Every structure is written in C-alpha cells, then in structure tokens.
Amino acid sequence: MPELPEVEVVRAGLARHVARRTVTSVEVLDPRPLRRQDGGVQAFVDQLTGRTLTAVVRRGKFLWLPLDDGRALSAHLGMSGQLLVRGTAPAADSGPVHERVSGAALRTDPNALTGGRSVDLSVTEQPRYVRDLSTSPRHLRVRLHLSTYPGTDGGGGAVPDPGLDDGAVLDLVDQRMLGGLHVVDLVPTADGAPGGMGSPEPLLPADATHIARDLLDPALKRTGPDGVVSKVRASQRAIKTLLLDQGLVSGVGNIYADEGLWEAGVHGLRPGTALGPRVVARILETTAEVMRRALQAGGTSFDALYVDVEGASGFFARELRAYGRQGQDCRRCGTGMLREVLGGRSHTYCPRCQTRPRRSR
Ligand SMILES: [Zn+2]
C-alpha cells in the first residue's frame, strides 16, 4: 500500500498540474471504481462536470480535491491505482486529437491521447520504472477532461506546465480495481485546524472524519492528555499495531512502521503500556523522520516523473534499513535481521537492537 510519502508525491504532482483547472467532461470507461459514489455513475458525472478543482489535500494516505461548490473529489488509489495527467496537445505526427464531449459519459479510444506529454503520478506497491505508458490505457477506468488554466497568477502557487497549458486529462488507471473515486461533502474539522496538507481550509471529507492527523501534520497533538503519546501509553496493544492504526495517527503503513521502530530500537510487539513517554515520543519522531527522508527523495526525483511515451520514470529508491531485510545484516550492529508475523502483518527487526519482549501477549 502507498504510505504517506508516496501519496504526498502524488498530491504535490496533482496540485502542480490539475489544481485550478475546471472539469469540462467526464468519461467513465468502467463504473466499478465509482462503487462508493452515492447515486452512481450519473451522479458522479453530474457533480463533477463544470466544477473547478480548487486544491489537492492529503491527510495521511487519504487524498481529496476540493471543488468550487463545497464538495470534494475523493481519490483512493488502493494497491494498484495510478493517476496520470496527460496533455492533449498532439505530437507532431500522432493520431487524431481526442474528441471532447461536454458533460457526457462515453467510451472512446484511450490510445487517442498518446501523443501528448504525460506526467505519471503512479503509486505502486513497490517502486518501479514505467517503461511503456502505452500499456496503461488498457486499464484506464475514468478520465476527467480539464480546462486550460484560468490564468498564470491565480495565487495558488501552481506553475502552469508549458506542455499541458492547452488542457489536459486526468486518468485513473487501475489494473486490479482496488482504487476508486467519488464526490463527497466536506465537513468542518473537529479541532478547527486545516483538514490536511495542501489547503488552509478547516474541512475534510465527511467519510474521512475517523482518520487521525498524520505525523507530518503541524496540527497533530503529540503530547498532553489527549495527545498521541498518551493514547499509545494507555493501550495494551503492540506498538507496531498502534502505529498502523489510522484512527490514532495516520499515514504510517508496514514499511515506515518497521523503519521507525528499527531507528528507535524498539521491538514492534512491545505493548503501549510498557513504553515510557520519551520512548514513545522517540518512536513517533524516528517514524516521522524516515517519512520526511523518503519524501525528500521522492520530491527530489519528482521532476524525473515527466515522461514521454518512450520515457522512463520512477520513484526514489528507498534506502530501507529494516523492511524486507530479513536474513540480511543489521546496518547498525551486523546481527542477522529476523521477521515474524505481528497482528497479521510482517515485522522485520534486529534481535539485538530491538529486544523482543518475553511473552508475545
Ligand atoms: Zn542491530
């Protein structure tokens, strides 16, 4: 599953390329990604057509694009979802330009757009290189046609890309149908702080109110009676399970939980009640720091995500110290890394740096 840094790379890319554009038409090639939409396909098309995407916001792994009518387009990428932004300018000798039909849901030839410039905002289970974008349209599910930018000084900070300034499409490409899109109401945040990264508005989707703030959110309460540290220390559950609980702190998945626990030198099985406040604070900080490093690497390589039909692009190569390193030497002490199953998920750790508690429960 994509975790916070991967979703943030997608958010930043969308903010740069689609924020402030208006949805001129919507094509639904497959209704299944709209399964969470109240009212089904027609409601999705009706509620999006003519609306402007005002921003791109993320809380944890949760992504939404506020619309100019107070609602939002919510995007779930699941394990295999990709969002692709493609310019609609035809290449020198490409095929016909895609026909635009306002407000209509219709099937068209997805290959008609391969001449334009493309930006791949893929999120995949593992970092990989996309060598051949022409294979992607096979799994194209939903396509949003977007207007040109209303102006170059909209104040949103987005810099129009010269190759995409005549309009673009935003594609949801999904091989395994685990991702989805839907239009949802926005509701006020309980604490009055911004809903997430990417917008100062204190709003979040009505179906995301159970998602806690993430470790990189300045409005996250770490200390104090209702802070994350206190909640962890009040729980009998294993610290790794607590880190993965999106209602306690969001954005952390299996990879960054293992990395953060290795950095902090704490075994994932330790119950919250067995950890002192400073240890819990350290685990939260090391986990946040690993995600910040991953994000930096992702951000740095983001411009490399500009690809043409022959081009390759990819995510940063993660420098993992724990996740997936079972059987290899600990990068701190040289001891062989072990792996066990904890709460249904794998946990990779160093038996010397991360002392395992005696009893598993
Ligand atoms: Zn070690």
Can you walk me through this structure?
Helix content is 19%, strand content 20%. By secondary structure, the chain is of the alpha+beta class. It has 2 domains: 4-206, MutM-like, N-terminal (N-terminal domain of MutM-like DNA repair proteins), CATH 3.20.190; 212-349, Helicase, Ruva Protein, domain 3 (Orthogonal Bundle), CATH 1.10.8. Strands 1-8-9-5-6-12 form a 6-stranded antiparallel β-sheet, with helices on one face. It has a 5-stranded antiparallel β-sheet with strand order 2-3-4-10-11. A hairpin with a 2-residue loop joins strand 14 (338-342) and strand 15. The radius of gyration is 22 Å and the shape is elongated. The two termini are 27 Å apart. Residues 89-118, 120-136, 151-158 and 299-318 have low confidence and may be disordered. The structure holds zinc ion.
